[in-house]
Amino acid sequence: MPELPEVETIRRGLAKRILHKPIKKVDIRKARVVRPQPSRFARALTRKSFTAIRRRGKLLIFAIAGGQQFMLAHLKMTGQLIYEKGPEIIAGGHGFPPVGALSKYTHVIFHFTDGSRLLFNDLRQFGYLKLVDGAGVAQAEAAFGLEPLGSGWRWQRLKHAMAGRQLTIKAALLNQRLVAGIGNIYADEILFAARLRPTRRLPSLRPAHWQTIARATRAILARALKHGGTTFNNYRDAAGGRGNFTRLLKVYGRGGATCLRCRHALRRIKTAGRGTVYCPRCQT
DNA sequence: CTTCTTGTTACTGA
DNA sequence: ATCAGTAACAAGAA
Questions:
Q1: Would you state the torsion angle of the CA atoms of residues A193, A199, A200, A201, taken in this order, to the nearest 10 degrees?
Q2: CB-proximal positions of chain B, under 7 Å
Q3: Is A177 annotated in the active site?
Q4: Which listed site, A25, A106, A180, A238, has its alpha carbon 20 to 30 Å from A224?
Q5: Could you tell me the distance in Å between the CA of residue A146 and the C1' of nucleotide C2?
Q6: What is the reported pTM?
């Protein structure tokens, strides 16, 4: 599942590969993943190029040459943006998992004039590519809360953003309107680092806790980004490669295993609608 | 075959 | 209004 570190890794990978390359053709194979309708989507991008790529939370924002239009890309759980050059290779045959390459899960192909391609793959088709104008970008960006890797990240602002709410800390971290970019993997990792139970309610947190949460959030996400993100199943970077943070995960996916801090068995529960792993001994 | 999974939104009931 | 829980979306893994 691409979260902030994975989406930022993709952003960087694409920014150094596709910017200013003229788009010769947009091949839309699955209409439901693009908005608005394919004809308008393709027309807006053909013979244009991308001039910049930004990120807000897990959302990628592509500026289209001309300055009036933008493409928003959300990968949801299984979306991929893969850049390819050289001959087309169809994956999915014998022993080649159909991820990170052209396959039946490739729903949109941007063909650049130099013969290279940008693939939008999505096994579950929850992700989307959406054409918007400047107001649409502003509206989309305004819906997100604090950026953990941004220059405005302060524990006081985090505390303020969550003031007066009765949520559990896990639900709060997952709420994109409060904090941008955290998903299920990093929420669990952050709470383990902060030694807090996912079910802790916000009003019980003291300023020292907020400092710890803010510091842990930034540290975990920055470290994951440095390692190219986490590949648990489906995630691939812009070159089709895997993330290397997976082996550094402390709790996610380790329910029943031993806590790396205190050796107690890690517990798996369901909270905030999500599978959640934590240590009942050292997270309070 | 059933159950589970995950990001996000919409809905329901408290 | 706010919160927890769940369905929905699609498709594969177990």
A1: 140
A2: 4-9
A3: no
A4: A106
A5: 21
A6: 0.94
